[in-house]
Specification:
The structure holds two protein chains of two kinds. Chain A has nine helices and 16 strands. In chain A, β12, α6 and β13 (249-252) form a beta-alpha-beta unit. In chain A, α3 (75-89) packs across α4 (102-113) and α6 packs parallel to α9. Chain A has helices spanning 18-34, 50-54, 75-89, 102-113, 192-195, 233-246, 254-258, 289-293, 324-338; strands at residues 4-8, 38-44, 61-66, 93-97, 117-118, 123-131, 136-148, 153-158, 165-169, 186-189, 203-210, 222-226, 249-252, 279-283, 300-305, 318-321. In chain B, β4 (59-66), α2 and β5 (85-89) form a beta-alpha-beta unit. Chain B is 28% helix and 28% strand. Chain B is built from eight helices and 14 strands. The termini of chain B are far apart. In chain B, the strands form two sheets. In chain B, strands 9-8-7-10-6-1-4-5-12-11 form a ten-stranded mixed beta sheet. Chain B has a two-stranded antiparallel sheet with strand order 2-3. By secondary structure, chain B is an alpha/beta fold. The chains are: A alpha/beta, B alpha/beta. At the A-B interface, α3, α4, β5, β7 and β8 of A face α3, α4, β7, β9 and β13 of B.
């Protein structure tokens, strides 16, 4: 009762997704604040050593449903198993990754349990709330903090009355950190066959083409990002040239992705990935708040823009007034000249 | 029997183009400067529905939206592009609905339109970016959901095969009908307005809109009853008052902070060789690169 649960996504390699481990790290802290247990829900088939992987994150209980029909993920059986589990366990807080699985599953679960769900939280804290209208005090609520309205406002959402309090969080937002290598919990097997009905298999997977995520800008120390101002797919090649010699990755704003200059996987910002590299070079990016929300934690920011008044310049450490086509070749030239 | 497709769409403030005029001097959003638009993902959803209608002559496309009176604009827009009818769910009692209360209202309206075969919506709306209303509506209807749909590969009266676009690849799934599909932005864009339909539906109005018109439409509407866009209130949907609006919304907004530009020390450089060489030297010597 009243514990913190994390839905752990099973990867192609039958391990647990990074985003879930990040959430367990956060979940452990919240559990310590509330003095409750941290429980992990693993639904899949032949998951590789869930206990050895999860206990070091401070997991007290692993609920494990292992059945060949549960991998790869489909919505309905996972939903039914979670609902059954939560009706029994009455969690206080439940966290899901804001992935294509988490964002498919969490709303369906929330609807069935008639509880609140906040998508894409960027911060989670414990706090109190006093409701003036009813003069009621609510202790130890989960503050679910997220950008809204296209990233132009930051909202703190609470669920005073309903439980569980549910939230999704994107990969890379929380920090993955082990709690204690010696930590030990227990594993409880869930009997999937007794819970699932034929209707849970209304959707079947016919085919899957998995493309390994070749593009992984999130873990890059240096990101060269381009916006609409880069002007064309051809001009984007300059960014790739610079990225190659700096060992960097190429990112992009939504406008550049929408214009078809680069793939969606490179999009930085509220509807893309959140990055915090050592160096972020923003090329021809005006810097809409949605974009800044995804990169403003970068250690150093350089803006290359012909517009001295571009909003991004206000958060940049250096602003180079000039065109991408002019500045980048010079950067390449002087990097080569000065590096050993 | 007709093959009934219900498209769920939302009118949203255009948060994508928050330019200079959309920010006030204090750095906060000037909502009045943002135009109300047809949610972009919902246009992709409408296209999916219309392309089914292209192939199946007995298919009909019904647009369902919830919002204030002016949200009838998205219904007209859908009719100009090929939708057959539209219904506007509108009632002050729905104000303040979160995704759960919204999906409750939408599910009641969809049930009122039964028997239906497919419910299609955009993956998410740009004002909230939650992507929750689709799956929650499916749950309330007790039907399967297929999220992140990119293409409908085949369809008959009982089943549908859909290609989904996921983070790490593509998945093709088969589902029984009825089902709810949420369409990804990588799906084909919506067709444009069709001149003939624009002429046909340009006078389509809701009752509330008619009451605000100075011109008398009585005769026109007697002749062309299809011009009337029906409005549904909470009572029309026989909605449980406890499940609507603020009281039906488990999530509450505790605090709103406007994002204000952070001002930090910024060095302005020219694009001269000298400035850029100096910058690269600084970056190398501080081990940021190299």
């Amino acid at each position: 009762m009243n514990n913190i649960f994390v839905y752990c996504e099973v990867t192609e390699e039958r391990s647990i997704a990074d985003v879930s481990l990040e959430l367990l790290s956060k979940g452990r802290k919240l559990a310590d604040d509330l003095k409750v247990k941290l429980e992990a829900v693993v639904i899949g088939h032949k998951v590789v050593k869930p206990e050895a992987l999860l206990y070091p994150f401070g997991v007290d209980v692993i609920h494990y449903a292992d059945d060949e029909k549960l991998f790869p993920y489909t919505t309905l059986p996972h939903t039914s198993l979670i609902i059954e589990l939560f009706k029994k366990e009455h969690p206080e807080i439940v966290l899901f990754g804001a992935t294509s699985i988490g964002r498919d599953l969490a709303p369906r679960v929330a609807s069935a349990l008639r509880c609140g769900l906040t998508a894409d939280c960027t911060s989670l804290e414990i706090g109190d709330h006093f409701e003036n209208k009813t003069q009621t005090e609510f202790k130890n609520l989960l503050y679910q903090i997220r950008p809204a309205f296209g990233g132009n406002i930051i909202a703190t959402i609470i669920n005073p009355e309903t439980r569980p309090q549910m939230a999704t969080v994107r990969e890379g937002v929380m920090k993955k950190e082990a709690y204690s290598v010696k930590y030990k919990g227990k594993l409880i097997k869930m009997d999937a066959r007794s819970i699932l009905r034929d209707e849970d298999f209304a959707v079947t997977i016919i085919e899957r083409h998995l493309e390994k995520s070749r593009i992984d800008i999130k873990n890059s120390q240096v990101i060269i990002a381009g916006g609409y101002g880069v002007g064309s797919k051809e001009n984007f090649k300059l960014l790739f040239d610079l990225a190659e010699i700096l060992g960097a990755q190429v990112g992009a704003s939504r406008a550049a992705v929408d214009a078809g200059f680069v793939e969606h996987e490179r999009q930085v910002g509220q509807t893309g990935v959140t990055v915090r590299p050592k160096l972020y070079i923003a090329c021809g990016i005006s810097g809409a708040v949605q974009h800044r929300a995804g990169m403003d934690q970068s250690a150093q920011i350089i803006s290359i823009n012909t517009d001295a008044g571009a909003p991004i310049n206000q958060i940049a450490d250096y602003t180079i007034i000039g065109s991408v086509a002019d500045v980048i070749p010079k950067m390449i030239k002087y990097y080569r000249k000065n590096s050993k | 029997m007709r093959f009934r497709i219900i498209v769920l769409a939302k009118q949203v403030p255009d948060t994508r183009n928050v330019g200079k005029d959309a920010m006030k001097a204090d750095g906060t959003v000037n909502r009045a400067a943002l135009p109300a638009i047809f949610n972009p993902d919902d246009l992709h959803a409408l296209e999916q529905a219309l392309s089914i209608k292209d192939k199946i002559p007995y298919a009909e496309v019904i647009l369902l939206t919830m919002g204030p009176t002016r949200a009838a604009e998205v219904i007209r827009e859908a009719m100009y592009r090929g939708a057959d009818h539209g219904f506007l769910i509108t009632d002050r009692k729905f104000a303040g609905s979160d995704t759960l209360a919204t999906s409750y209202a939408l599910s009641l309206a969809v049930k009122k339109l039964a028997p239906y075969h497919l419910v299609i919506s955009g993956r998410q709306a740009i004002d909230g970016d939650t992507a929750q209303v689709g799956p929650q509506t499916a749950e309330k209807l007790g039907i399967p959901q297929i999220t992140y749909a990119e293409e409908i590969l085949s369809l008959d009266a009982k089943k549908i095969i859909v290609k989904r676009r996921l983070e790490r690849g593509v998945e093709v799934v088969n589902s029984t009908l009825p089902a709810l599909i949420t369409v990804h932005s990588s799906a084909p864009p919506c067709r444009h307005r069709i001149g003939k339909l624009l002429m046909k539906y340009k006078h389509a109005r809701t009752i509330t809109e008619l009451q605000n018109e100075t011109k008398d439409y009585t005769e026109l509407y007697n002749e062309r009853p299809y011009l009337l866009i029906e409005e549904w209130s909470a009572e029309d949907l026989k909605a449980d008052p406890e499940s609507l609006g603020l009281s039906g919304s488990p999530t509450k907004v505790k605090k709103i902070e406007n994002v204000v530009f952070q001002h930090k020390e910024s060095k302005i450089l020219s694009n001269s060789d000298k400035d850029i060489e100096k910058l690269m030297q600084t970056l190398i010597s501080s081990h940021i690169i190299g």
